[in-house]
Amino acid sequence: MTDPTPRLDQRFSDPGTQATPWPVTREALEHAQLFWITTVRSDGRPHVTPLVAVWLDDALHFCTGPAEQKTFNLAANPHVVLTTGDGHWDRGLDVVVEGEAVRVTDPAALARLAAAWSAKWDGRWRFQATGTGFAHEDGGRALVFTVTPAKILAFTKGTFTQTRYLPGA
C-alpha cells in the first residue's frame, strides 16, 4: 500500500470534498491504540472483538490466544475486517481494513513485530518471539497474524468523505 492513489466515492461524500490523502489514513493506522476485528464463525455468524494491533510494512498485525474464538474462526475462514476510529459522528476519521489474516511464524518477523508492539505502547505490551508466535511475561501464549490489505476505506467526518485505497492503485 505504499502511497496508493486515494479514490473519493462521491456517492457518500459531501459535494466539493477531496479524498483523504493516504498519509493521513496511514497515520491513523499507525497511531490507533484500539482496533475492532470481525471474523466469521463456522456457522456464518460474525464475531467482533476489540484488540491492539500494529501497522508495519504496509500491513496490520495482531495477536490472539490459541484458544480464543478468533483463532477458531480464522482456522476455517481467514477473511477479516479491522476497524479503528473515533466514536464521534461529526469529527475524526474512521478506517476500515479488509483482507486475509495469515499466521506469522518466521522468527525474525516475530522478533521485529514484538519490538514494534513494545515501541508503540512504551513497553506496556511486551512479548518474546517464540517458534510459534509470542510469549507473554506471565507465561501466556499468543498466535500472531498479518493482514495485508485487499482494500482500505477512510471515512472523514464533519465534512463527510469516503475514500477508497486499493493495493497497487
Automatic annotation (TrEMBL):
PANTHER family according to UniProt: HEME OXYGENASE HI_0854-RELATED, PYRIDOXAMINE 5'-PHOSPHATE OXIDASE-RELATED FMN-BINDING
> Which positions fall inside the Pyridoxamine 5'-phosphate oxidase N-terminal domain?
25-150
- Where in this protein does the record put region Disordered? 1-22
Q: Which InterPro entries match?
A: F420H2_bilvrd_red/Heme_oxyg, Pyridox_Oxase_N, Split_barrel_FMN-bd
What domain of life does the UniProt record list for this protein's source? Bacteria
Q: Give start-end positions of Basic and acidic residues composition bias.
A: 1-12
Q: Which organism is it from?
A: Bailinhaonella thermotolerans
Q: Which SUPFAM superfamilies match?
A: FMN-binding split barrel (SSF50475)
Keyword terms, alphabetized: Oxidoreductase
Please verify whether the record's keywords include Oxidoreductase.
yes
MF terms from GO for this chain are: coenzyme F420 binding; oxidoreductase activity, acting on the CH-CH group of donors
Q: Could you tell me what this protein is called?
A: Pyridoxamine 5'-phosphate oxidase family protein
Question: Taxonomy-wise, where does this protein's organism fall, top ranks first?
Answer: Bacteria, Bacillati, Actinomycetota, Actinomycetes, Streptosporangiales
Which cellular component terms (GO) are annotated to the entry? Answer: cytosol
